[in-house]
Design goal:
The protein is of the alpha+beta class. It is built from four helices and four strands; from the N terminus they run ββααααββ. 36% of the residues lie in helices and 23% in strands.
């Protein structure tokens, strides 16, 4: 079973929001696979889809017993500005995942600016 609480902070003038992913693993990962296929076909994804992609990354990394720093570093390689719709990098500036996977202890993973925005600067 997958239980992940994701708290997202974006632009300073927008309030943070939280999404809870409480799924059977097969259902959750099949949703993530559909999003990954969209990315491979060069279809730009929205903020919700990007959040699921990062959540799947966190779940897989925890299962692989990766260190928090490795999870954070690898997350920056998942999406680029040209793979997401306008506004997504600004919406997903800071993502805090509180993840409980199977019977493992809960882990807190923080992704800061996971979508590198080299092509334009993010204020703040």
């Amino acid at each position: 079973m997958i239980h992940v609480k994701a708290t997202v902070s974006g632009e300073p003038d927008a309030p943070p929001f939280t999404r809870v992913f409480d799924y059977d693993e097969e259902i959750f990962l099949s949703s993530a696979k559909i999003i990954e296929e969209k990315i491979q076909r060069d279809i730009k994804i929205n903020a919700g889809e990007a959040l699921i992609a990062y959540c799947a990354h966190v779940v897989r990394s925890i299962r692989a017993s990766k260190k928090d720093s490795d999870i954070q570093d690898d997350a920056r390689k998942i999406l680029a500005v040209d793979k997401v719709m306008i506004g997504v990098p600004e919406t997903l500036r800071l993502i805090t995942f509180e993840a409980t996977i199977d019977s493992r202890p809960a882990r807190k993973i923080v992704l800061k600016q996971p979508i590198p925005a080299d092509k334009y600067s993010l204020v703040g």
